[in-house]
Amino acid sequence: MVPLVDTHVHLDSNRFDEDRQELLDRAGSVGVRQLVTIGTNVHTSRAALVLGREREGIWSTVGLHPHEARTGSEETYRTFRELARESSVVGVGEQGLDFYYDNSPREEQRDSFRAQLRLAIELDLPAVIHVRDAYEDAWDIIVEEWLDDAGRPNGPGGVFHCFAADVDFAQRCVEAGFMLGIGGVVTFSNAQKLHRVVEDIGLEHLVLETDAPYLTPDPHRGKRNEPAYIPHIAERVADLKGITVKRVAEQTTANARRLFQLPDSELLPAD
Ligand SMILES: [Zn+2]
Ligand SMILES: [Zn+2]
Could you tell me the distance, in angstroms and rounded to a whole number, from the CA of residue 61 to the centre of ligand 2? Predict the structure, then answer.
């Protein structure tokens, strides 16, 4: 079985409290060898880090979701800096802008995004970026905080998780060194814009993610999502590109390991 990596999951979610270990076993049994569980505030970042201590193959991030940007303070980022000393912390985010829900005032979202991009550069960790209905606004901040005059990243890499913009924006992202996170939406028949992106952008720029418990792929849509569904996403990407699932798994796993600097020795047991 070819190893897979789930690069974006919320493993601390209380929707996994009943069966978290079985869920990890199921992920292992379909080939998921490593996963990155994502922080969305101080509390969930700490919870993610604790999960990372409990079982091999689990890595974590520290971050403040744009929905929660209003709660960000110097203290928040100081705490992230401390938590990130632990070697199982491999990224900063999810951070970014979400102007679809506008759960936090836009100016506070911008400030929080800037602060976390700076933190990622300071810690030399990749940025895990969440953007919804705010791609151009996010790009303006990235140009100022993340790129040098030649448009290249000054520091570590990053990923636009749950990528949902068009091919032109995708091109801009990969030229600036970002990976694109492809999740369950790619399995939906009406996601033509994302299908175009997957067809046109080179496999060396894509990583796979579930964003579980959210965004469940077909054929499980309507149920809770979980990392064991990553193969459905890999299969759809393979379909769209006209290549084998094995090739998708190999390349996206290599991409994920390079992005988050994951050693390939630490693996979830197969079953
Ligand atoms: Zn997100
Ligand atoms: Zn997420």
Answer: 11
Which residue type, as a one-letter code, is found at position 99?
F
- The count of other CB atoms within 10 Å of the CB of residue 213 is 18
In this structure, how many other beta carbons lie within 10 angstroms of the beta carbon of residue 262?
20
Q: Rounded to an integer, what distance in angstroms lies between the CA atom of residue 117 and that of residue 45?
A: 16
The ligand placed nearest to the CA atom of residue 40 is 2
147-205 residue pLDDT tens: 999 888 878 999 999 999 999 999 999 999 999 999 999 999 999 999 999 999 999 99
Structure tokens at 190: 């009406």
Residue 120's Cβ-count burial label (10 Å; 0-12, 13-18, 19+) is buried
74-85: average pLDDT = 97
Q: How far is the CA of 144 from the centre of ligand 2 (A)?
A: 24
CA 256 – CA 206 distance, rounded (Å):
8
Q: Is there a contact between 117 and 145 (Cβ–Cβ < 8 Å)?
A: yes
Residue 161 Cα to ligand 1 midpoint, Å, equals 6
Reduced to 3 states (helix: H, G, I; strand: E, B; else coil), residue 183 is: coil
Angle in degrees, CA 208, 147, 186, rounded to 5: 20
pTM, 2 dp: 0.96
Ligand 1: centre distance to CA 162 (Å) = 7
Ligand nearest to the CA of 38: 2
Q: How confident is the model at residue 2 (pLDDT cuts 50, 70, 90)?
A: confident
Give me ligand 2 centre to Cα 150, in Å: 30
